[in-house]
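Quarterly update, task 2.4: nicotinamide-adenine-dinucleotide-bound model.
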Amino acid sequence: MSEDVLLYINGEWKAGGAGKLPIINPATEEQIGTVAHASHADLDIALEAADRAFRQWRDVSALDRSKVLRQAAKLMRERQEDIARIMTIEQGKPLAESRIECAASADLFDWFAEEARRTYGRVIPARAVGVSQTMTKEPVGPVAAFTPWNFPLSQTARKIGAALAAGCSIIVKGPEETPASVAELVRSFADAELPAGVLNLVFGVPADISSYLIPHPIIRKISFTGSTAIGKELASLAGRHMKRSTMELGGHAPAIVFADADINVAANLLCGAKYRNAGQVCVSPTRMMVQESVYEQFIDLFVEGAKKVKVGNGLDADTAMGPLAHGRRVEAMESFVADAVAKGANLRTGGSRAANKGYFFQPTVVTDLSGDARLMNEEPFGPIALISSFRTFDDAIAEANRLPYGLSAYAYTKSAETAARVSSSIESGMISINHHGLGLAETPFGGVKDSGYGSEGGVEAIEAYLVTKFVSHRYA
Ligand code: NAD
């Protein structure tokens, strides 16, 4: 991987005015490179570039914008092996997951390339002869996007794809923990001959950059993926400056397993989904809620599955779960487990660091949690599964909806009636029943309640980057 990750501003790779910080391989805790940090002077250059480039890019035809997106997607596919390796080294996830994410990001660019050509307006029948009434969609303007370290490529691809397709320019503040893979994504656009200034990439102190960019008059739209606490701060800053925003925040997804479900399938799929990316997934199924009569059977199957998850360096072919992305997550996991056990929880497997070196944590299963355990109320964002039992449908729904989160939910049942009732009763932006089917380019992706607002997938995604203009024209 490239040793020094630079900023990309106005079509040039450059060192940052605020120095650089180390990038750490989470599997070995060794320094693997550095990432440039932007100063306010760098941000000013990026802002000016984004402003100038926006005026050009919005006038490039939708067809030509879509060609650039398609070319970047093609380059991402050609470079998949190299990019996946870079991501695994800096983020920790197994190579197979990195490859899938790289392919999914290319898929997102193709989707947005298609959407670019469908930003339709409409003609509204007028009340008088000689008047035409039309509505058109225009790009909102330069965007400031803040992207996370758990899916460095795909979460950045969602924002860049929608912005560029709509005709916006964008400044991305990438994740400082995993900057090199994001830089490779940006390089695909540079090599696809995206005009200078349309896409800019910066890194630095997150709060410093967001507090500078969000209020800036050049920036017209904010998009953030990260924790609910930070999302609320950024959304209120955006609100104070009347900036549109999309907030893709935390979740604590309920997974409801009814007694009539195929319990083997449910345990197998939920276990696989839970430990994907070491549980650092906003839509990770986290609160397994299992109907009483199949509770013990489910626990046995799930624990057996968790024990089989091979933990190791993501570069090793047989690794199913890599390290956590940084040391703060390991400390967070230890504190969650200690709190749960102190409050009477039953630790069925895991619960500790998995190695002396590297940010490894064991796949963990906890049952019999008390209602005031932090795990029952806060998003673990790591490899900890909670399993509890419920008696009736209403009990399950009440527990699922108890928390302020509402990003994703899962249910397992063979009854079409139960499936229909659960999908209409759950307060979440997405629900997947009898399989794990979230996150495709063409399907909506976003939450409700404290999980944020706006959608970063499907036909809804590009809307957030467009404004509506109504024209009433008397021509006769
Ligand atoms: P954190 O809250 O310090 O950072 C989370 C993300 O937000 C990072 O990418 C960080 O760079 C960014 N960030 C933090 N403060 C910011 C600010 N003032 N302005 C702009 N960006 C800012 O926590 P962490 O330990 O790095 O991650 C753990 C938490 O983050 C988890 O609890 C999880 O909820 C959340 N998270 C969520 C997602 C997601 O996909 N929704 C992704 C990554 C992290």
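Highlight for this quarter: The radius of gyration is 23 Å.
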